[in-house]
Amino acid sequence: MIEFRNVSYHVNGVAVLKGINLRVLLGETLVLLGRSGSGKTTTLKLVNRLLIPSSGEVLVHGTPNQTIDVIRLRRGIGYVIQDVGLFPHFTVQRNIGLIPKIEGWPEERIRARVDELLQMVGFDPGMASRYPHQLSGGQRQRVGVARALAADPEILLMDEPFGALDPLTRDELQREFLILQQRMQRTVVFVTHDLREALRLGTRIALMEAGELVTVLTPQEFLKSSDRWASAYVRAFGEGLESAANRGTS
Amino acid sequence: MNVIRFIVENRSQVLELTGEHLWLVGWSTLFAMVLGVPLGILIAHRTRLDKLVLGSANVIQTIPSLALFGFLLPLPWLGARADRLSILALTLYALLPIIRNTYTGIRGVEASVLEAGRGMGLTESQLLLQVELPLAASVILSGVRIAVVISVGLATIAAAVGAGGLGEFIFRGLAMVDNRVILAGAIPAAVLALLADFGMGWIERWLKPR
Protein backbone atom coordinates (compact mmCIF):
# COMPACT_ATOMS: atom_id res chain seq x y z
CA MET A 1 0.00 0.00 0.00
CA ILE A 2 2.65 2.44 1.18
CA GLU A 3 6.31 1.56 1.10
CA PHE A 4 9.37 3.54 2.19
CA ARG A 5 12.52 2.43 0.39
CA ASN A 6 15.68 3.60 2.05
CA VAL A 7 14.26 7.08 2.57
CA SER A 8 16.39 9.88 3.99
CA TYR A 9 15.47 13.48 4.48
CA HIS A 10 17.91 16.33 5.09
CA VAL A 11 17.36 19.94 6.03
CA ASN A 12 20.36 22.19 5.46
CA GLY A 13 22.67 19.19 5.53
CA VAL A 14 21.24 17.86 8.80
CA ALA A 15 19.68 14.40 8.57
CA VAL A 16 16.12 14.43 9.91
CA LEU A 17 15.39 10.91 8.62
CA LYS A 18 18.02 8.27 8.05
CA GLY A 19 17.43 5.31 5.75
CA ILE A 20 13.81 4.49 6.58
CA ASN A 21 12.52 1.16 5.25
CA LEU A 22 8.89 0.55 6.08
CA ARG A 23 5.86 -1.11 4.58
CA VAL A 24 2.32 -0.16 5.50
CA LEU A 25 -0.11 -2.95 4.72
CA LEU A 26 -3.55 -2.70 3.16
CA GLY A 27 -6.23 -1.92 5.74
CA GLU A 28 -3.93 -1.72 8.76
CA THR A 29 -3.44 1.15 11.17
CA LEU A 30 0.27 1.72 11.41
CA VAL A 31 1.19 3.98 14.31
CA LEU A 32 4.37 6.05 14.12
CA LEU A 33 5.39 6.41 17.74
CA GLY A 34 8.24 8.57 18.94
CA ARG A 35 9.13 11.66 20.87
CA SER A 36 9.14 15.22 19.54
CA GLY A 37 11.75 15.63 16.83
CA SER A 38 12.08 11.90 16.16
CA GLY A 39 10.88 12.33 12.57
CA LYS A 40 7.31 10.97 12.75
CA THR A 41 5.63 13.96 11.16
CA THR A 42 8.35 14.23 8.51
CA THR A 43 7.79 10.58 7.64
CA LEU A 44 4.06 11.18 7.33
CA LYS A 45 4.46 14.23 5.09
CA LEU A 46 6.65 12.29 2.69
CA VAL A 47 3.63 10.14 1.80
CA ASN A 48 1.46 12.95 0.40
CA ARG A 49 4.49 14.86 -0.86
CA LEU A 50 4.20 17.81 1.48
CA LEU A 51 7.89 16.93 1.73
CA ILE A 52 10.18 15.35 -0.85
CA PRO A 53 12.81 12.80 0.29
CA SER A 54 16.46 13.75 -0.16
CA SER A 55 17.15 10.16 -1.20
CA GLY A 56 15.18 6.95 -1.53
CA GLU A 57 11.57 6.74 -2.62
CA VAL A 58 8.07 6.39 -1.25
CA LEU A 59 5.69 4.07 -3.08
CA VAL A 60 1.94 4.52 -2.93
CA HIS A 61 -0.16 1.69 -4.38
CA GLY A 62 3.13 0.31 -5.72
CA THR A 63 4.01 3.43 -7.69
CA PRO A 64 6.75 5.90 -6.68
CA ASN A 65 4.73 8.87 -5.48
CA GLN A 66 7.04 11.29 -7.30
CA THR A 67 5.64 9.99 -10.59
CA ILE A 68 2.00 10.55 -9.60
CA ASP A 69 0.44 13.96 -10.24
CA VAL A 70 0.68 15.63 -6.84
CA ILE A 71 -2.92 16.88 -6.79
CA ARG A 72 -4.31 13.45 -7.75
CA LEU A 73 -2.05 11.82 -5.17
CA ARG A 74 -3.26 14.10 -2.38
CA ARG A 75 -6.94 13.80 -3.28
CA GLY A 76 -6.60 10.05 -2.85
CA ILE A 77 -5.10 10.45 0.62
CA GLY A 78 -7.05 11.87 3.56
CA TYR A 79 -5.03 14.16 5.83
CA VAL A 80 -5.89 15.02 9.43
CA ILE A 81 -3.67 17.25 11.59
CA GLN A 82 -3.65 18.21 15.26
CA ASP A 83 -4.66 21.83 14.61
CA VAL A 84 -7.43 20.54 12.32
CA GLY A 85 -7.06 23.49 9.92
CA LEU A 86 -10.73 23.89 9.10
CA PHE A 87 -11.40 26.78 6.73
CA PRO A 88 -12.71 29.43 9.13
CA HIS A 89 -14.81 31.22 6.49
CA PHE A 90 -16.64 28.05 5.41
CA THR A 91 -19.47 26.29 7.24
CA VAL A 92 -18.99 22.70 8.37
CA GLN A 93 -20.87 21.59 5.28
CA ARG A 94 -18.67 23.57 2.86
CA ASN A 95 -15.51 22.46 4.62
CA ILE A 96 -16.39 18.82 4.07
CA GLY A 97 -17.87 19.32 0.62
CA LEU A 98 -15.02 21.38 -0.83
CA ILE A 99 -13.07 18.65 -2.58
CA PRO A 100 -16.19 16.84 -3.86
CA LYS A 101 -17.36 20.19 -5.21
CA ILE A 102 -14.04 20.87 -6.93
CA GLU A 103 -14.23 17.34 -8.32
CA GLY A 104 -17.55 18.30 -9.84
CA TRP A 105 -19.95 16.12 -7.85
CA PRO A 106 -23.61 17.13 -8.23
CA GLU A 107 -24.97 19.22 -5.36
CA GLU A 108 -27.31 16.50 -4.08
CA ARG A 109 -24.62 13.88 -3.92
CA ILE A 110 -22.38 16.26 -1.97
CA ARG A 111 -25.15 16.97 0.53
CA ALA A 112 -25.89 13.27 1.00
CA ARG A 113 -22.19 12.53 1.43
CA VAL A 114 -21.75 15.31 4.01
CA ASP A 115 -24.70 13.98 6.03
CA GLU A 116 -23.40 10.44 5.85
CA LEU A 117 -19.91 11.45 6.97
CA LEU A 118 -21.16 13.62 9.82
CA GLN A 119 -23.22 10.72 11.12
CA MET A 120 -20.21 8.43 10.80
CA VAL A 121 -18.02 10.67 12.94
CA GLY A 122 -20.75 11.33 15.51
CA PHE A 123 -21.48 14.94 14.59
CA ASP A 124 -25.05 16.20 14.62
CA PRO A 125 -25.87 16.94 10.95
CA GLY A 126 -28.26 19.62 12.20
CA MET A 127 -25.16 21.67 13.01
CA ALA A 128 -23.73 21.45 9.50
CA SER A 129 -24.40 25.11 8.80
CA ARG A 130 -22.24 26.28 11.72
CA TYR A 131 -18.85 27.88 11.37
CA PRO A 132 -15.72 26.29 12.89
CA HIS A 133 -15.38 28.95 15.61
CA GLN A 134 -18.82 27.94 16.92
CA LEU A 135 -17.63 24.38 17.62
CA SER A 136 -15.77 22.73 20.49
CA GLY A 137 -12.35 21.17 19.97
CA GLY A 138 -13.78 17.66 19.77
CA GLN A 139 -16.46 18.70 17.29
CA ARG A 140 -13.86 20.42 15.14
CA GLN A 141 -11.70 17.34 14.94
CA ARG A 142 -14.75 15.23 14.08
CA VAL A 143 -15.35 17.58 11.17
CA GLY A 144 -11.63 17.37 10.32
CA VAL A 145 -11.88 13.58 10.07
CA ALA A 146 -15.10 13.80 8.04
CA ARG A 147 -13.43 16.25 5.65
CA ALA A 148 -10.47 13.94 5.18
CA LEU A 149 -12.84 11.10 4.29
CA ALA A 150 -14.98 13.18 1.93
CA ALA A 151 -13.64 11.92 -1.37
CA ASP A 152 -13.43 8.36 -0.02
CA PRO A 153 -9.63 8.03 0.03
CA GLU A 154 -8.06 4.63 0.46
CA ILE A 155 -5.30 6.03 2.63
CA LEU A 156 -5.64 8.22 5.71
CA LEU A 157 -2.75 10.13 7.26
CA MET A 158 -3.35 11.34 10.81
CA ASP A 159 -0.84 13.58 12.60
CA GLU A 160 -1.60 13.57 16.33
CA PRO A 161 -5.27 14.18 15.54
CA PHE A 162 -6.44 13.80 19.13
CA GLY A 163 -3.39 15.37 20.77
CA ALA A 164 -5.01 18.68 21.64
CA LEU A 165 -8.21 17.25 23.14
CA ASP A 166 -9.15 16.77 26.77
CA PRO A 167 -8.84 13.16 28.05
CA LEU A 168 -12.57 12.38 27.93
CA THR A 169 -13.08 13.71 24.43
CA ARG A 170 -9.88 11.99 23.30
CA ASP A 171 -11.16 8.69 24.70
CA GLU A 172 -14.44 9.18 22.83
CA LEU A 173 -12.75 9.95 19.54
CA GLN A 174 -10.33 7.04 19.88
CA ARG A 175 -13.24 4.69 20.48
CA GLU A 176 -15.11 6.08 17.48
CA PHE A 177 -11.98 5.80 15.38
CA LEU A 178 -11.75 2.07 16.20
CA ILE A 179 -15.39 1.50 15.25
CA LEU A 180 -15.00 3.57 12.09
CA GLN A 181 -11.82 1.78 11.08
CA GLN A 182 -13.45 -1.61 11.68
CA ARG A 183 -16.14 -0.61 9.22
CA MET A 184 -13.98 1.14 6.63
CA GLN A 185 -10.73 -0.84 6.73
CA ARG A 186 -8.70 2.05 5.35
CA THR A 187 -4.93 2.06 5.32
CA VAL A 188 -4.06 4.47 8.10
CA VAL A 189 -0.75 5.99 9.17
CA PHE A 190 -1.22 7.51 12.61
CA VAL A 191 1.36 9.70 14.33
CA THR A 192 1.39 9.99 18.12
CA HIS A 193 3.77 10.29 21.05
CA ASP A 194 1.23 8.68 23.38
CA LEU A 195 2.01 4.99 23.92
CA ARG A 196 -1.45 4.30 25.29
CA GLU A 197 -3.01 5.69 22.11
CA ALA A 198 -0.56 3.71 19.99
CA LEU A 199 -1.40 0.44 21.74
CA ARG A 200 -5.10 1.09 21.55
CA LEU A 201 -5.35 2.13 17.92
CA GLY A 202 -2.43 0.50 16.17
CA THR A 203 -2.37 -2.75 14.24
CA ARG A 204 1.39 -2.33 14.38
CA ILE A 205 3.58 0.27 16.01
CA ALA A 206 6.64 1.70 14.28
CA LEU A 207 8.92 3.17 16.92
CA MET A 208 11.10 6.09 15.84
CA GLU A 209 14.03 7.70 17.58
CA ALA A 210 16.34 10.45 16.31
CA GLY A 211 15.34 10.06 12.67
CA GLU A 212 15.65 6.30 12.61
CA LEU A 213 13.10 3.54 12.58
CA VAL A 214 13.94 1.48 15.67
CA THR A 215 11.50 -1.40 15.31
CA VAL A 216 8.01 -2.33 14.12
CA LEU A 217 5.92 -4.40 16.56
CA THR A 218 2.32 -5.34 17.26
CA PRO A 219 0.89 -3.85 20.49
CA GLN A 220 1.23 -7.21 22.28
CA GLU A 221 4.86 -7.61 21.18
CA PHE A 222 5.59 -4.03 22.10
CA LEU A 223 4.69 -4.57 25.75
CA LYS A 224 6.98 -7.58 26.05
CA SER A 225 9.78 -6.21 23.90
CA SER A 226 13.29 -6.11 25.28
CA ASP A 227 14.21 -3.37 22.84
CA ARG A 228 15.89 -0.53 24.70
CA TRP A 229 13.58 2.21 23.41
CA ALA A 230 10.39 0.17 23.48
CA SER A 231 10.93 -0.88 27.10
CA ALA A 232 11.83 2.71 28.01
CA TYR A 233 8.44 3.75 26.66
CA VAL A 234 6.61 1.03 28.54
CA ARG A 235 8.35 2.00 31.79
CA ALA A 236 7.54 5.67 31.27
CA PHE A 237 3.86 4.96 30.83
CA GLY A 238 3.61 2.44 33.63
CA GLU A 239 0.60 0.40 34.47
CA GLY A 240 -2.73 -0.04 32.79
CA LEU A 241 -1.20 -0.60 29.39
CA GLU A 242 -2.33 -4.20 29.11
CA SER A 243 -5.93 -3.19 29.08
CA ALA A 244 -5.18 -0.46 26.53
CA ALA A 245 -3.56 -3.04 24.28
CA ASN A 246 -6.73 -5.10 24.64
CA ARG A 247 -8.65 -2.14 23.21
CA GLY A 248 -10.10 -1.32 26.62
CA THR A 249 -10.89 2.12 27.86
CA SER A 250 -9.00 2.31 31.15
CA MET B 1 -22.10 81.88 6.67
CA ASN B 2 -20.00 83.32 3.91
CA VAL B 3 -18.33 80.04 2.96
CA ILE B 4 -21.61 78.20 2.61
CA ARG B 5 -23.05 81.00 0.51
CA PHE B 6 -19.95 80.98 -1.69
CA ILE B 7 -20.22 77.22 -2.21
CA VAL B 8 -23.93 77.41 -2.98
CA GLU B 9 -23.45 80.27 -5.42
CA ASN B 10 -20.64 78.40 -7.19
CA ARG B 11 -22.22 74.98 -6.86
CA SER B 12 -21.85 74.03 -10.51
CA GLN B 13 -18.12 74.66 -10.33
CA VAL B 14 -17.82 72.88 -6.97
CA LEU B 15 -19.56 69.88 -8.48
CA GLU B 16 -17.38 69.94 -11.56
CA LEU B 17 -14.18 70.08 -9.51
CA THR B 18 -15.48 67.36 -7.21
CA GLY B 19 -16.07 65.23 -10.29
CA GLU B 20 -12.50 65.83 -11.45
CA HIS B 21 -11.26 65.04 -7.98
CA LEU B 22 -13.12 61.74 -7.93
CA TRP B 23 -11.82 60.95 -11.41
CA LEU B 24 -8.22 61.31 -10.20
CA VAL B 25 -8.80 59.35 -6.98
CA GLY B 26 -10.85 56.65 -8.68
CA TRP B 27 -8.38 55.85 -11.44
CA SER B 28 -5.33 56.03 -9.21
CA THR B 29 -6.93 53.72 -6.62
CA LEU B 30 -7.91 51.29 -9.33
CA PHE B 31 -4.39 51.24 -10.78
CA ALA B 32 -2.85 50.91 -7.33
CA MET B 33 -5.10 47.91 -6.62
CA VAL B 34 -4.36 46.27 -9.97
CA LEU B 35 -0.66 46.65 -9.26
CA GLY B 36 -0.54 46.44 -5.49
CA VAL B 37 -2.71 43.39 -4.72
CA PRO B 38 -0.78 41.01 -7.02
CA LEU B 39 2.51 42.44 -5.73
CA GLY B 40 1.36 41.91 -2.15
CA ILE B 41 0.35 38.33 -2.96
CA LEU B 42 3.70 37.74 -4.64
CA ILE B 43 5.79 38.94 -1.72
CA ALA B 44 3.60 37.08 0.78
CA HIS B 45 4.53 33.86 -1.05
CA ARG B 46 8.12 34.73 -1.98
CA THR B 47 9.20 36.34 1.24
CA ARG B 48 12.71 36.97 -0.09
CA LEU B 49 11.26 39.89 -2.04
CA ASP B 50 9.23 41.41 0.77
CA LYS B 51 11.88 43.78 2.16
CA LEU B 52 12.77 45.04 -1.32
CA VAL B 53 9.20 45.70 -2.44
CA LEU B 54 7.91 47.13 0.85
CA GLY B 55 11.09 49.20 1.18
CA SER B 56 10.65 50.67 -2.32
CA ALA B 57 7.01 51.50 -1.68
CA ASN B 58 8.10 53.11 1.59
CA VAL B 59 10.69 55.26 -0.16
CA ILE B 60 8.07 56.53 -2.62
CA GLN B 61 5.93 57.49 0.36
CA THR B 62 8.71 59.68 1.75
CA ILE B 63 8.99 61.86 -1.38
CA PRO B 64 7.20 65.16 -0.69
CA SER B 65 4.07 65.17 -2.81
CA LEU B 66 4.60 68.54 -4.49
CA ALA B 67 8.12 67.39 -5.45
CA LEU B 68 6.85 64.10 -6.91
CA PHE B 69 4.37 65.90 -9.15
CA GLY B 70 7.26 68.15 -10.22
CA PHE B 71 9.63 65.23 -10.91
CA LEU B 72 7.10 63.61 -13.23
CA LEU B 73 6.49 66.80 -15.22
CA PRO B 74 9.40 66.44 -17.72
CA LEU B 75 8.45 62.85 -18.66
CA PRO B 76 7.43 62.71 -22.34
CA TRP B 77 4.01 61.01 -22.55
CA LEU B 78 2.96 61.71 -18.99
CA GLY B 79 4.06 65.31 -18.76
CA ALA B 80 1.91 66.15 -21.77
CA ARG B 81 -1.30 65.79 -19.79
CA ALA B 82 -1.68 66.92 -16.23
CA ASP B 83 -4.35 64.34 -15.34
CA ARG B 84 -2.22 61.38 -16.48
CA LEU B 85 0.67 62.65 -14.47
CA SER B 86 -1.45 63.21 -11.39
CA ILE B 87 -3.02 59.77 -11.62
CA LEU B 88 0.46 58.22 -11.76
CA ALA B 89 1.67 60.21 -8.76
CA LEU B 90 -1.43 59.30 -6.73
CA THR B 91 -1.09 55.66 -7.78
CA LEU B 92 2.47 55.58 -6.47
CA TYR B 93 1.35 56.97 -3.11
CA ALA B 94 -1.55 54.54 -2.86
CA LEU B 95 0.70 51.52 -3.45
CA LEU B 96 2.23 51.21 0.01
CA PRO B 97 -0.93 50.70 2.07
CA ILE B 98 -2.37 48.33 -0.51
CA ILE B 99 0.76 46.20 -0.91
CA ARG B 100 1.42 46.13 2.81
CA ASN B 101 -2.11 45.17 3.80
CA THR B 102 -2.34 42.48 1.11
CA TYR B 103 0.96 41.08 2.38
CA THR B 104 -0.15 41.23 6.02
CA GLY B 105 -3.57 39.75 5.25
CA ILE B 106 -2.21 36.78 3.33
CA ARG B 107 0.59 36.13 5.80
CA GLY B 108 -2.03 36.18 8.54
CA VAL B 109 -3.79 33.05 7.28
CA GLU B 110 -3.10 30.29 9.79
CA ALA B 111 -0.40 27.82 8.80
CA SER B 112 -2.60 24.85 9.78
CA VAL B 113 -5.32 26.00 7.38
CA LEU B 114 -2.85 26.15 4.50
CA GLU B 115 -1.32 22.81 5.42
CA ALA B 116 -4.71 21.13 5.56
CA GLY B 117 -5.67 22.74 2.24
CA ARG B 118 -2.49 21.59 0.52
CA GLY B 119 -2.71 18.16 2.11
CA MET B 120 -6.23 17.60 0.82
CA GLY B 121 -5.12 18.39 -2.71
CA LEU B 122 -6.01 22.00 -3.41
CA THR B 123 -3.88 23.54 -6.15
CA GLU B 124 -1.98 26.70 -5.30
CA SER B 125 -4.47 28.79 -7.26
CA GLN B 126 -7.46 27.14 -5.55
CA LEU B 127 -5.79 27.80 -2.23
CA LEU B 128 -5.31 31.46 -3.18
CA LEU B 129 -8.81 32.05 -4.52
CA GLN B 130 -10.82 29.89 -2.10
CA VAL B 131 -8.84 30.37 1.08
CA GLU B 132 -6.15 33.04 1.20
CA LEU B 133 -7.91 35.91 -0.58
CA PRO B 134 -11.30 35.47 1.15
CA LEU B 135 -9.58 35.34 4.55
CA ALA B 136 -7.40 38.35 3.74
CA ALA B 137 -10.17 40.35 2.06
CA SER B 138 -11.08 42.59 4.97
CA VAL B 139 -7.42 43.43 5.69
CA ILE B 140 -6.77 44.17 2.00
CA LEU B 141 -9.84 46.36 1.87
CA SER B 142 -8.74 48.33 4.91
CA GLY B 143 -5.51 49.03 2.98
CA VAL B 144 -7.55 50.29 0.04
CA ARG B 145 -9.55 52.39 2.45
CA ILE B 146 -6.42 54.05 3.82
CA ALA B 147 -5.17 54.58 0.26
CA VAL B 148 -8.42 56.27 -0.78
CA VAL B 149 -8.46 58.61 2.20
CA ILE B 150 -4.82 59.60 1.59
CA SER B 151 -5.52 60.08 -2.12
CA VAL B 152 -8.51 62.35 -1.57
CA GLY B 153 -6.27 64.67 0.45
CA LEU B 154 -3.26 64.40 -1.87
CA ALA B 155 -5.30 64.93 -5.02
CA THR B 156 -5.69 68.59 -4.03
CA ILE B 157 -2.01 68.98 -5.01
CA ALA B 158 -2.89 67.93 -8.56
CA ALA B 159 -4.25 71.41 -9.16
CA ALA B 160 -0.69 72.72 -8.89
CA VAL B 161 0.20 71.00 -12.18
CA GLY B 162 -3.12 71.93 -13.76
CA ALA B 163 -5.01 68.65 -13.36
CA GLY B 164 -8.00 70.31 -11.71
CA GLY B 165 -9.89 68.89 -8.77
CA LEU B 166 -10.86 70.65 -5.56
CA GLY B 167 -7.27 71.88 -5.17
CA GLU B 168 -8.17 74.52 -7.75
CA PHE B 169 -10.16 76.40 -5.13
CA ILE B 170 -7.45 75.97 -2.53
CA PHE B 171 -4.65 77.32 -4.73
CA ARG B 172 -6.88 80.09 -6.07
CA GLY B 173 -7.90 81.06 -2.52
CA LEU B 174 -4.28 81.11 -1.43
CA ALA B 175 -3.39 83.41 -4.31
CA MET B 176 -6.37 85.67 -3.57
CA VAL B 177 -5.82 85.49 0.19
CA ASP B 178 -9.50 84.56 0.48
CA ASN B 179 -10.42 81.96 3.09
CA ARG B 180 -13.86 81.44 1.61
CA VAL B 181 -12.36 80.17 -1.63
CA ILE B 182 -9.84 77.96 0.19
CA LEU B 183 -12.60 76.42 2.27
CA ALA B 184 -14.79 75.91 -0.80
CA GLY B 185 -12.12 73.42 -1.89
CA ALA B 186 -11.10 72.09 1.51
CA ILE B 187 -14.57 71.37 2.93
CA PRO B 188 -15.84 69.26 0.01
CA ALA B 189 -12.48 67.41 -0.01
CA ALA B 190 -12.83 66.62 3.69
CA VAL B 191 -16.44 65.52 3.19
CA LEU B 192 -15.33 63.25 0.33
CA ALA B 193 -12.64 61.69 2.52
CA LEU B 194 -15.11 61.07 5.33
CA LEU B 195 -17.70 59.56 2.99
CA ALA B 196 -15.10 57.30 1.39
CA ASP B 197 -13.83 56.23 4.80
CA PHE B 198 -17.34 55.50 6.02
CA GLY B 199 -18.40 53.66 2.87
CA MET B 200 -15.29 51.49 2.71
CA GLY B 201 -15.51 50.76 6.42
CA TRP B 202 -19.01 49.47 5.85
CA ILE B 203 -17.89 47.14 3.03
CA GLU B 204 -14.96 46.02 5.16
CA ARG B 205 -17.20 44.96 8.02
CA TRP B 206 -19.42 43.16 5.58
CA LEU B 207 -16.44 41.23 4.18
CA LYS B 208 -14.96 40.34 7.55
CA PRO B 209 -14.70 36.57 7.98
CA ARG B 210 -16.62 35.29 10.97
Strand order of the largest sheet of chain A: 6-7-8-3-9-10
Structural class designation of chain B: mainly alpha
* CATH class descriptor of chain A: Alpha Beta
Task: Tell me what the CATH architecture of chain A is.
Answer: 3-Layer(aba) Sandwich
Shape of chain A: globular
For the termini of chain A, the CA-CA separation is: 33 Å
Number of helical segments of chain B? Answer: 10
Q: Write down the domain tally of chain B.
A: 1
CATH topology of chain A: Rossmann fold
Sequence of secondary-structure elements of chain A: EEEHEEHEHHHEHEHEEHHH
Whole-number radius of gyration of chain B?
20 Å
Structure characterization notes:
The complex is a heterodimer of chains A (250) and B (210). Chain A has 250 residues and is α/β, with parallel strands linked by helices. Helix content of chain A is 39%, strand content 25%. Chain A has one domain: P-loop containing nucleotide triphosphate hydrolases (Rossmann fold), CATH 3.40.50. Chain A has helices at 40-47, 70-75, 92-102, 107-120, 137-149, 167-184, 195-201, 219-224, 228-237, 241-245, and strands at 2-11, 14-24, 29-33, 55-60, 63-64, 77-81, 155-159, 187-192, 204-209, 212-217. In chain A, the strands form two sheets. Chain A has a six-stranded mixed sheet with strand order 6-7-8-3-9-10, with helices on both faces. In chain A, strands 2-1-4-5 form a four-stranded antiparallel sheet, covered by helices on one side. Chain A is globular and about 55 Å long. In chain B, 82% of the residues lie in helices and 0% in strands. Chain B is mainly α. Chain B is elongated. Chain B has a single domain, classed as MetI-like (MetI-like fold, Orthogonal Bundle), CATH 1.10.3720. Chain B is built from ten helices and no strands. The model of chain B has no long low-confidence stretch (mean pLDDT 91). Classes of the chains: A alpha/beta (250), B mainly alpha (210). Chains A and B meet through helix 2, strand 6, helix 3 and helix 5 of A and helix 7 and helix 8 of B.
